[in-house]
Amino acid sequence: xxxxxxxxxxxxxxxxxxxxxxxxxxxxxxxxxxxxxxxxxxxxxxxxxxxxxxxxxxxxxxxxxxxxxxxxxxxxxxxxxxxxxxxxxxxxxxxxxxxxxxxxxxxxxxxxxxxxxxxxxxxxxxxxxxxxxxxxxxxxxxxxxxxxxxxxxxxxxxxxxxxxxxxxxxxxxxxxxxxxxxxxxxxxxxxxxxxxxxxxxxxxxxxxxxxxxxxxxxxxxxxxxxxxxxxxxxxxxxxxxxxxxxxxxxxxxxxxxxxxxxxxxxxxxxxxxxxxxxxxxxxxxxxxxxxxxxxxxxxxxxxxxxxxxxxxxxxxxxxxxxxxxxxxxxxxxxxxxxxxxxxxxxxxxxxxxxxxxxxxxxxxxxxxxxxxxxxxxxxxxxxxxxxxxxxxxxxxxxxxxxxxxxxxxxxxxxxxxxxxxxxxxxxxxxxxxxxxxxxxxxxxxxxxxxxxxxxxxxxxxxxxxxxxxxxxxxxxxxxxxxxxxxxxxxxxxxx
Length: 495
Known about the structure:
Elements: E1 2-6, H1 11-21, E2 28-31, E3 42-51, E4 54-63, E5 66-75, H2 81-101, H3 115-126, H4 128-138, H5 143-160, E6 167-174, E7 176-177, E8 189-190, H6 191-194, H7 198-219, E9 222-230, H8 238-251, E10 259-265, H9 272-280, E11 285-288, H10 295-300, H11 307-319, E12 325-331, H12 338-351, E13 355-360, H13 368-372, H14 381-396, E14 400-405, E15 416-420, H15 427-434, E16 438-442, E17 447-451, E18 458-462, H16 467-472, H17 474-481, H18 484-490
Parallel strand pairs: 1-2, 1-3, 6-9, 6-16, 7-8, 9-10, 10-11, 11-12, 12-13
Antiparallel strand pairs: 3-4, 4-5, 13-15, 14-15, 17-18
Helix pairs in contact: 1-2, 3-4, 3-5, 7-8, 7-17, 8-9, 12-14
């Protein structure tokens, strides 16, 4: 797909709109250059012509036997004139793609990761009713998704109110897995590949945890939530987990801690000894994630555990005393069907977990699904029905949506939603998605996000991605973390 831009530089959003409809196609953008060749199978021309009274906009889409042009005018006195031109041009292109392909997008023109945060900002600027109208009338969001977004926002508001200017969360990265699932693109390594790295990694991670904890105490920061993620943290042995939990306890003030989560993730890594170690550390929330309860689908995505292992792991967690368990599901997995997803939902609801997170499959470029097989992305109906089913069944069972985010190249352009029984929401998920407060992150692939209190300003500190880099470069990691106090000093924070 070739995208020709004339008289403007709105390439980012126009590319995103195009990708909504053509997620796997290469998009080549030409800015005020190049001769348009009608021999090209796909192209769009998006033009802005300045005039004394405003700007004349036009968009033409040429694709196979389809060739149409549409126009609009934006008056010079329109508030936020440049942004209004960009939105109008995106709307023109969206309309042409809709007419050519014969379907609309339930999220309309919303292409960003954080639609709830956008709605919150619009509510602050326009008021609640005007914000909802803007979402529906300007961004073309369906009533179904608008209601989901508004419901999520209402729950989030109560959770965000718990955070204070001095609050922060701690993320600990364990970038190891028993095997790599075909849909995954995270920077993680299988135990077979990286077993020899783990002892050194745990030692280095304890050093970074100690350094980070000392810094947080000196700054007077208040630890609200801890999240051990990955990868699969329960790839580690009970002794290695206990060592890391001890480093956290020894170096951080846990007196204000509201939540402590560990992703047990893969059921084939869950044992009674590991759960006992996790529970003994004061962890109150774990994730045990089947993704699907269809054996053939599990095998097809390279997830080397059985449905029975998931049920066994869930029961072990209950016996260990966990009263807040999350289960992850993925809609749109290769080989899954709507009926199969219905069976999975029945199985999950029979267990009554406190959290159910429903993801939509995202075709990530580095995943095996994309590297080894290019699925027909136009076969989306089942995935859309799966997501709709979850949005119907989970509220009926007493769950509320409490956080929501979107990824590019998802099957059917759907979303990821965390559902929870009231009072069991994962605060960390909300805080990181809303970018509420500072996240101090330790380990390979971790990214610390420093949040200026009472503002939207963020700075990031990136750790090395791979465990072998991290093991060799721990001094560099600590040096990067040494800039945290100057961030708070620069922004006048006094804990």
